[in-house]
Write a structure and sequence with these properties.
This protein has 348 residues and is an alpha/beta fold. It contains 14 helices and twelve strands. The relative contact order is 0.17. It binds pyridoxal-5'-phosphate. Pyridoxal-5'-phosphate binds next to helix 5.
């Protein structure tokens, strides 16, 4: 006897990275949060939120926030849809485009939520393995002819990016939707926004969780042609972006200078941390995100993960084939990163 649909009964729920209780003294390098505070302008808006704003339902279209995005990115308003984190936009895409047995394709390892959301729809996951260098298996992805194809760029957990040419070419081979998940774009050298202008089947996803230091606020958005967004508007939760998130997020997005300055600090720390790990003979994959995928020389990633955890430093260990000899480590402040590399030296 079960209360659930067969696919729900069979699936494993998404397991987020550990979140220690508030006040616990840990160095948290496991879920790719930004180590720096959000924009002071955004925090000012938060402090000034009044009861009247909260008494009423929010704008169901998050118009003010989308206007801020439109101005910064130079994209028309009706090409933008907002979500309660970009996870929410992912949910809308799957709800709108994927029914029972429909194929959803992506290369693995990548963001595990793509699998979870596909399984909720009773869709069929087509998982194409990445090679050791995380080169995009574009032909295999195209061959899957999926209803939805995901590419995270930069990818997690590898930090690798894929070019406009590669993704544009892939989009041209697909009849279904290509989702380019740019959650980490703020730490990368380029982006793929221009593709949406020529490919109606492409949607670009962005979030304020990483670059803008607002993971707790829950705000993200998608950019795509109005024809593609039409289906998403139909299936989204009515008030998916709350009034506080819309107000605070608008101010944060308008403050590009603050975001860019923090991203520069993270990028400089990424270079230093890469060099430090390499002196210890760790393999480090070239990353354009705010984390590094790294393999200790003897592959004893789990022991290092446990040792770090015992010493109050959290990193991400994925106990799965292809990743169980590696760690994904968020780039923190230089001070945090020094504590990390110091602790690794002690453990080994
Ligand atoms: C963090 C992340 C997201 C989503 O984050 P939200 O907090 O829901 O906006 C999406 N994709 C990838 C690959 C991520 O790492």
């Amino acid at each position: 006897m079960t209360y659930f649909r067969k696919n729900i009964e069979q699936m494993v729920g998404y397991v987020p990275g550990e979140q220690p209780a508030a006040g616990e003294r840990v160095i948290k390098l496991n879920t790719n949060e930004n180590p720096y505070p959000p924009s002071p302008a955004a925090l000012e808006v938060l402090r000034n939120l009044d009861g009247e704003t909260l008494r009423r339902y929010p704008d169901p279209t998050a118009g003010r926030f989308r206007q801020a995005v439109s101005e910064v990115l130079g994209v028309p308003l009706d090409w933008i849809i907002a979500g309660n984190g970009s996870d929410d936009v992912l949910t809308m895409i799957l709800r709108a485009c994927v029914g029972p047995a429909d194929a959803v394709a992506y290369a693995v390892p990548t963001y595990v939520l793509y699998r979870t959301l596909t399984q909720i729809q009773a869709g069929r996951c087509v998982e194409v393995p990445y090679d050791e260098d995380f080169a995009l298996p574009a032909d295999a992805l195209a061959e899957a002819a999926a209803a939805v194809t995901f590419v995270a760029s930069p990818n997690s957990p590898s930090g690798t990016v894929y070019s406009v040419e590669q993704l544009d070419d892939l989009a041209g081979k697909l009849r279904g939707v290509l989702v380019v998940d740019e959650a980490y774009v703020d730490f990368a050298d380029g982006d793929c926004l221009e593709i949406v202008r020529r490919r109606e089947n492409v949607i670009i996803l962005r979030t304020l969780s990483k670059g803008y230091s607002l993971a707790g606020l829950r705000l993200g958005f998608g950019v795509g042609s109005p024809a593609l967004l039409e289906g998403l508007w139909k299936v989204k939760d009515s008030y998916n972006v709350d009034a506080a998130a819309a107000a605070v997020g608008s101010a944060a997005f308008a403050d590009q200078a603050h975001k860019n300055a923090n991203a520069e600090k993270v990028k400089a720390s990424r270079v230093k941390m890469t060099a430090e790990l390499k002196t210890m003979d760790f393999r480090v994959w070239p990353s354009q995100a705010n984390f590094l995928l790294t393999r200790p020389p003897d592959g004893n990633a789990e022991a290092i993960y446990q040792g770090l955890k015992a010493g109050g430093i959290l990193v991400r260990y994925f106990n799965q084939p292809g990743l169980d000899d590696k760690l994904r480590i968020t780039v923190g402040t230089d001070e945090q990163n020094a504590a990390l590399t110091g602790a690794i030296k002690e453990i080994r």
